Amino acid sequence: MTPDSMVCAHCGLSITATERVRGRIAGIDQDFCCQGCRGAFLILTDAGLDDFYRRREGEIGLPAGAYENAYGEDYLANFVRPDPDGAQLCFIVDGIRCAACVWVLEKLLGRCDGVLEARLNYGNHRARVKFDPTRTSAARIFSAVARIGYLPRPLSVDQGEERAERERRALLIRFGTALFLSMQLMGYSLALYAGYFQGMDAQAKQIFHYFSAAVATPVVFYSGAPFLQGGWRNLRNGVPGMDLLIAMGVLAAYGTSLYATFAGGEVYFDTAAMIVTLILAGRLFEGAARRRAAAGIDLLLRLAPQTARRLLGEQREEISASQVRCGDLLEVRPGERFAVDAQVVGGETEVDEAPVTGEPLPVWRRPGDQVAAGTLNLSALVRVRATATAANSFIARVAQLVEEAQMRRAPIQRLVDRICALFVPAVMVLALATFLFWSWRATEISPLLAAVAVLVIACPCALGLATPMAVLVATGAAARRGILFRGGDILEMTGRLTLVAFDKTGTLTLGRPRLTDVYPAHGSVDELLALAAQAECGSSHPLAQALVAEARRRRLDFTPAQNVRTLPGRGLEATTPQGSLRVGSEAFLRQAGIDIPPSTALEGATQVHVALDADYQGVILLEDALRPEAAACLQQLHTLGLSQALLTGDSPQAAQRLAAKLPLSSVHGGLSPADKAAWITAARAERERVLMVGDGINDAPALAAAQVGCAMVGGTDIALENSDLVLTRPDLGRLVEALLLARRARILIRQNLLWAFAYNLLALPLAAAGQLAPVHAAAAMALSSICVVGNSLRLGRKELLRPEIRVN
Amino acid sequence: MLQSTLILIILSLFIGAAVWLVFIWAVKRGEFDDIEGPKHRMLDEDDARSGKPNRRRDS
To answer: Membrane-spanning regions, if any (chain B) (predicted)?
Structure first.
């Protein structure tokens, strides 16, 4: 706000510089003309009545500039996050009613200058816009959304809930009103029916008509307002949608009845009212299902507390979690949750990480250890240093991933979308044709009712819901189990896999190798270990860590080597005062021209060879134990009809020894990351659909080469962004669950589509032939949506996955 | 006949309207906001005041 235009935030009068009172309220700097105004503002905002400031502008609907008062450019800038392509903004859009709204908003935002990508989640009405900050701004995006009649608001968890609550209540009241009035209407209709057969006093009939009109009017124009508005929006934007079909059906029935009330003839007020009531009932069910499916993400986000206690010297201050910056020192008491990802700097405690990683037992955390946002501090007060802001914490990114996944469209859905776009205009033509045909034939079938039935029955609600609903429920259910699908397309593909390729270290095995033997070529065991540790101490590879840990345990003295070069899958090369040091696989050393004496005792175990210049120093043997659940899980995958392969960078002997215990169809050792990727590409060429399971770092090319790349991470962030399927806990049982869930989801999507298509195909001719009353059409349509939603919800059930899958 | 019918219709409208007002009042008061919670609440311990079912752990 510039000084010359400064006005009081409460009373709106201009402030002179000498009288200005500043206040920081709810994280926003506000200016007031006096302390009294500041107090009043504080009271109103504290009571959650900030709506006052918007309401007093006399707004009905959405006047220009309404949101600009609430969200200044500077304030909105807080919600913009950097992104590889520029910047990203997440916000909530009020007023979304159907998939067509989503489509219109996405298209319109996409056309704005500087907007790179706009995605809107129909499930929770959240928009994610990627834009170029040099060409546009958050405020401009907001005004673009507001211009076409929707209300955008910056995203925070509380606001989302509040909005959902408000919309749900509004819908419930609309439905309740419609139900009550429709019941009255049914009474009048019954009387009119009786009168139709037994004869009725003309005056009495007229009175019943008037009552019917009086009762039906609020149903159509109040309860049916969402459809009328939606239909109007469809019409204005030239995008025919489901709302338009419903609105036309209702208005046609209502309009002719109103005409008949005064001009004489039969009335169909009950038809108009029942269509509205039944479809509202369908939406109520749909909304409840959608909320249940999205609850997984909300639960995740709600875990992280909204406030944190920051330490400044000896002072403590409560600040909002979003204000925590990297490097801030925070204090967390036992029983509190961590607000951001952080590193412990003072104190030791037990942390319950169950909600984030699924690990049921508390984990001991010491200074230097990482703790994740949303996890619970159990036993003692600790001081932590923030390593990420709240918006970038692991949990927020996971939530974002799940949300993105629900926004990504499955290929099958794109087909459905295309069909829908053709469907609506076709139905309008069909309805018109039906009307004209029955008018021309002049039978006892009412042309108008037949046309209305066509309009109502054709509403492709079930078709539009079939895939997204199943994907939403499946990804939500998966997320609760610690399985993250990157999108509907991945879910679909996962259900069709034929081959699973495993990496060995960290995937089939625990990834924590133990040192078993050391064979120095000359010199002592300790000398060889110290030499290897010099090169390996900077590496995060599990073999390196085991080696360095052993060296430390023996209290060996070693200095980290300079210029360490990592050759993924082969070894390390470093420069030391003693000469050029090479630590790695047999092949790697042979390549460097080093002569390795043949040895027979080394079969099976993982070998790390060490050489100084051309001088062979010896070999260190390490062994990595198989995961306890691995054998059972692979057996289950086998019974599911999947062939399995082991691809490892380890020696073929080590791979074979491991494979002997497992139902693997092929075993390949000594592969470099590029070899693994090549093997997968070759398998794909043979029409296999491949899932690659790895730990993320050195398997990246293989993960990318496979149709579905699955990373197993233990609550760390390594492969989160690069893989299609993420298991947040290193447990192969989850992999089996993921596959089962994906298969179920695929079957369900097919069932849904089949049902929706069959239903429309069967009912449309009936309606066009005048054999289906509009009321029955509306009931059948709501029922069809409920069937699809209910069928999809079955995916969220716990007992769905066979109990014997659970190994641990 | 018509007279009595009229009275009955108007009476039913009034009674219905009264029920409708009670319904609106209940919605506004948030009686329908959480239809899952109450049945779990009696099983909750004292600290669970949110009315949400307890977080279940996947084992």
So the answer is: 6-27
Annotated catalytic residue, options A503, A650, A699, A731: A503
Nearest CA in chain B to A188: B9
A503 an active-site residue? Answer: yes
In this predicted structure, what is the pLDDT of residue B59? 35
pTM (two decimals) = 0.56
Which string of DSSP letters, residue by residue, matches A600-633?
STTSSSEEEEEEETTEEEEEEEEE-PBPTTHHHH
- CB-based contact, B22 to chain A, within 8 Å: no
Among candidates A617, A615, A679, which has minimal Cα distance to A647?
A679
- pLDDT value for A601: 54
Region at A662 (left for phi over 0; alpha for psi -120 to 50; beta for the rest): beta
Asked if A286 and A318 touch (Cβ cutoff 8 Å), the reply is no
Closest residue to A358, CB basis, from B12, B30, B58: B58
Closest CA in chain B for residue A182: B16
**Could you tell me if A480 lies within 8 Å of chain B, comparing CB atoms?**
yes
d(CA A748, CA A754): 10
Q: How far apart are CA A350 and CA A164, in angstroms?
A: 36
Alpha carbon distance A787, A463 (integer Å): 11
pLDDT at A124: 63
Domains of chain A are 1-61 (2.30.170), 73-155 (3.30.70.100), 316-392 (2.70.150.10), 483-508+626-739 (3.40.50.1000), 512-625 (3.40.1110.10)
Q: Is the pLDDT of residue A648 over 50?
A: yes
pLDDT in tens, A6-61: 777 766 666 766 667 777 766 677 777 766 677 777 776 776 666 656 544 433 33
Assess B29–A contact: CB distance below 8 Å, yes or no.
Answer: no
Closest CA to A633 of A730, A709, A568, A706: A730
A176, B5: Cβ pair inside 8 Å?
no
Of A168, A123, A130, which Cα lies nearest the Cα of A297? A123
- Between helix A269-303 and helix A157-198 the angle, nearest 10°, is 160
CB contact under 8 A, A481 and B2: no
CB-CB under 8 Å, B24 with A176: yes
Longest dimension (CA), chain B: 70
User: How close B44 gets to chain A, by Cα (Å)?
Assistant: 18
- Which segments of A112-156 does DSSP mark as H helices, in order? 138-147
Q: Is the ipTM of this complex over 0.90?
A: no
> pLDDT band at residue A213, thresholds of 50, 70 and 90?
very high
A461-480 helix and A732-768 helix, angle to the nearest 10 degrees: 170
The type of residue at A218 is P
A164: nearest CA partner in chain B: B33
